[in-house]
Design brief:
alpha+beta; 4-stranded antiparallel sheet; elongated
Length: about 525
């Protein structure tokens, strides 16, 4: 019985989760008390469904500024996604000319004039941190703007909704057709819709793999059957995931799979602008009467449900902030269109803040405070991480050096009393041309060196994008040991110079000897 009670209570979890999100921001959402009314605890013989069935959403086509803005964002983002792999960037004869390329066999990432090696993964980590903090900043100012306009799930779901509306008709038509029995026309429309969804999904999966290989070379290979098996496998994987998430699951992904709705409440405060129903204007709701009843006062909301019909998540924004709301603002366009028809002011549903609701209730003017403690902190973190990342990127070397001292034995005493240490030196040339580099040792005084296995002298010729591994023996004369060693250890440096005499890489090297 306890288990059944816990599971059945999941029916009201989403509504209560919206309360938790708002509570994190210090506010209580405007919810209908009926939505928070708990279901009666089941008895021991309860055998009903444990989870509520999905209610299919039929979003209605709307027109307005936010719909046009979403169209523009969709075109730009999809254009970047599909076109970016085909852009070219000249890096020289020996380097790939694809502007954006994640070259896994060569273990590097190309982004226009930037080139990152696998050991520079910390730059990618910095980029991810910047993206996360930037998302926090946007959310603290405009709520879930990312979810409403730029999230891939939103973009592809919106595209699939448009295909569905184009083939099957608008909301009322689709509802009526779904209730009708199967017919040749209904099967043809459903089949056409899913075929187009699958084609979009194939294009999505195909475009993704072009970021990992040369697009002009891989594209014809996919059609003549000479592409690697992995390419077909990943196209199938991304095709299936796009079709399933964007076409079939749609709003279910945002409600049940995505963690962001459950996190974003911590990013909000009283001044955050979120899509809101202005209850002080709209209530009490009521239809427009040709002959008004004396003494009856109604707000601007005529209870037409246009905002509900336009919502791709199938919720009623008039119930206050909710976990399911992705802040796409289509309800604003739908409501504004109705307000124009009934000759009432626009903005019954608008981007608003809790603080402004309180100001209006107190008769004070509205304010939009974008500069607040949390936004300043987020901006400073972005500036700090971005500045440091940019500095290190501008000053990074195109050569990499690693010096590993032999451990067994740590040192060898030669016949003349000199102490010799052995090292494995790995020198990497990240440039796209052959280079002649010179290795020098500093900080150990006068030393004798001998190079073997990979380099026969301190002057090393290394090819483009190549790694040289060499063995180095460094000897220190007996009479110099006392001046150099400190408790049997000395710290020196190996520096790598190019032909112009500039230092391109350096590494600390530890020299060991007997303790005095």
């Amino acid at each position: 019985m306890f288990t059944a009670s816990v599971v059945v209570s999941s029916r009201v979890t989403l509504r209560r989760a919206s309360v938790a999100c708002a509570a994190l921001s210090g506010r209580t959402p405007m919810l209908n008390p009926q939505q928070l009314k708990p279901e009666p605890a089941p008895d021991a013989g309860f055998d009903g469904p444990l989870y509520a069935s999905r209610v299919k959403v039929y979003p209605k086509k709307v027109r307005g500024a936010f719909r046009r803005f979403k169209w523009a964002i969709m075109v730009v983002l999809l254009g970047i996604y599909y076109v970016a792999p085909w852009l070219r960037w000249d890096r020289g004869a020996l380097a790939p000319d694809q502007a954006i390329l994640l070259d896994l066999p060569a273990r590097r990432f190309y982004f226009f004039f930037l080139e990152f090696w696998s050991q520079e993964i910390y730059y990618m980590a910095a980029l991810m941190v910047l993206s996360a903090v930037g998302l926090f900043l946007v959310t603290s100012v405009f709520g879930r703007a990312w979810c409403g306009y730029a999230c891939p799930q939103t973009v592809w779901s919106d595209l699939f909704f448009h295909v569905e509306r184009w083939i099957e008709g608008d909301r009322n038509t689709r509802i009526r057709k779904d209730k009708m029995p199967l017919s040749v026309r209904k099967v043809a429309e459903k089949t056409s819709k899913h075929v187009i969804w699958i084609l979009i999904s194939i294009a999505t999966g195909g475009a993704w793999i072009f970021y990992f290989a040369d697009a002009p070379t891989l594209f014809p290979a996919l059609f003549n059957g000479t592409a690697p098996a992995q390419a077909y496998g990943f196209i199938a994987l991304f095709t299936g995931s796009t079709y399933l998430l964007g076409g079939i699951a749609k709003e279910q992904v945002c409600i049940y799979m995505c963690p962001w709705p459950r996190i974003q409440g911590a990013m909000l405060d009283d001044e955050s602008l979120i899509v809101s129903y202005r209850e002080d204007r709209g209530e009490p709701r009521g239809p427009i009467r040709k002959h008004p009843v004396p003494g009856e006062e109604t707000g601007d909301c005529i209870n037409c449900n246009a905002c509900v019909y336009a919502c791709p998540m199938g919720i009623d924004i008039r119930n206050g902030p909710q976990l399911e709301c992705i802040q796409c603002a289509l309800c604003i366009d739908a409501c504004d269109e109705i307000m124009d028809k009934v000759e009432r002011p626009r903005g019954l549903i608008a981007y608003d803040s809790f603080a402004n609701q309180e100001r209006r209730a107190a008769g004070k003017p509205e304010q939009f405070n974008f500069i607040r403690t949390r936004t300043v902190v987020y901006a400073l973190v972005i500036a700090l991480i971005g500045g440091l990342t940019t500095y290190f990127m501008l000053n990074r070397s195109d050569a990499d050096l690693n010096v590993l001292a032999d451990r067994n034995p740590a040192f060898v005493t030669l016949a003349d009393g000199s102490i010799r240490n052995g090292y494995t030196v790995r020198l990497m040339n990240k440039a796209n041309a052959e280079r002649v580099l010179t290795a020098k040792i500093e900080g150990l005084g006068p030393v004798a060196t001998r190079w073997t296995r990979g380099a026969d002298s301190e002057v090393i010729t290394i090819g483009p994008d190549s790694l040289v591994t060499a063995k180095l023996f460094v000897s220190l004369k007996k009479e110099d040991l006392e001046d150099v060693l400190d408790d049997g250890v000395a710290a020196g440096h190996m520096i790598i110079l190019d032909q112009m005499g500039y230092v391109v890489a350096s590494e600390t090297m530890r020299f060991q000897g007997p303790r005095q």
